[in-house]
Amino acid sequence: MMAKTALVLGATGGISGEVARNLVGRGWTVRALSRSGELGQRDGVEWERGDALNAPDVERAAEGASLIVHAVNPPGYRDWDRLVLPMLDGTIGAARAVGARVLLPGTVYNYGPDAFPCIGEAAAQNPLTRKGRIRVEMERRLRAAAQAGDIRVLIVRAGDFFGPHAGNSWFGQALVEAGSRPRVLTYPGRDGIGHQWAYVPDVAETMARLAERDDLGSFESFHMDGQWDPDGRRMIGALRRVLGEPGLPVRRLPWGAMRLAGPFVPLFRELAEMRYLWEEPVRLDNRRLVERLGGEPHTPLDAAVRASLVGLGCLEGPAAMGMAA
Asked: Which residues form the NAD-dependent epimerase/dehydratase domain (predicted)?
């Protein structure tokens, strides 16, 4: 029987924290690394001193684990080219040493327009951006290690994250501003262009269900459909309904100003690189996931939006995060 012990790297982040909470709820022993914060057990997670950039720290924390969730990124999009791949190499080394599976949250950054509009797991990865090329190299290294028989890999790819704890997202940094009730919504896309969203608790549930299966191969990749917005109006409509303001104004994201500020603000530079993903419909094909699980975890959109707004401090009330089957 699989040892239900997981090391979650980046557990203070949106998706990683949600995966950690989900695994704890399923009876897993969950560990996380902290460079300077409080140690000991909090919310069922065992926090140990360590740095995801330090390979010996990762290997020590991974002892006895059957799963390593690699969801750690440099803060504020800084030093991606210098830090991301060494962190992954440390995870691969730890997984090799303890015999664990690596779980990686995938992104659509890996793909260019030649893969649009509907992307399957076997689609060619020809990214347009620097960050996309790094993500492709991450997956190449994971695949190579899996093919060599060194580790097992699970990649779950989804659209733009949103959720109660996903402040570092288009939802929490563009559509609304975390910490205050919205007086205006800011939408990055164009009218009539579809966009794919992913509610973080649903993503975490999907990852956990897959991670507990014993019929996965050495390298597996699955795509989620999440919350598909066919014309850019579905998410805006849900926000207006949940806020009780059907006439809440919507403005366009000032892409030009972001591009001009990019050399001085790394976040703006990185976000501006992703503009192409808002200019035409981009949708991940989840048929392989549905075939394996029999369905995809899916929370009704209004419930997901309400929980997200409450969690981000944009709306008062209980964050009802119940997930539909």
From this structure: 6-215
